[in-house]
Write a structure and sequence with these properties.
With 98 residues, the protein is an all-alpha fold. The chain has helices at residues 3-31, 39-51, 53-56, 59-97.
Length: 98
């Protein structure tokens, strides 16, 4: 694999993860109150529906679920960024050969 493609995959992965995390956290901070609550209230509501009010009262469980959820968003963003980086790197690698 070409060095340009490798570096573009790494750059796309980092950019995608940071962008995914920034968007998900900024939505919570900027519009959390206007939409009826942020990540904390949403996760607490879902845990209350799935497992009952006993688990919804435990803050550690809620924060752990938030970390897992935001981490999943970061991983998905990294995968999408790596895919785009591979496509862009391959394209520019082919363009520089001619």
């Amino acid at each position: 694999m070409n060095q340009l493609v490798k570096s573009s995959i790494i750059a796309g992965c980092i950019f995608g993860a940071v962008t995914g995390l920034a968007v998900s956290l900024s939505i919570d901070f900027m519009m959390g109150d206007s939409l009826g609550g942020g990540w904390y209230e949403s996760v607490r509501h879902d845990i209350n529906l799935w497992f009952g009010p006993v688990w919804a009262a435990k803050d550690l469980v809620i924060y752990l679920c938030i970390v897992i959820l935001i981490g999943g968003i970061g991983i998905i963003g990294a995968l999408i960024g790596a895919l785009f980086g591979a496509i862009a790197g391959k394209f520019f690698s082919l363009m520089s050969k001619s």
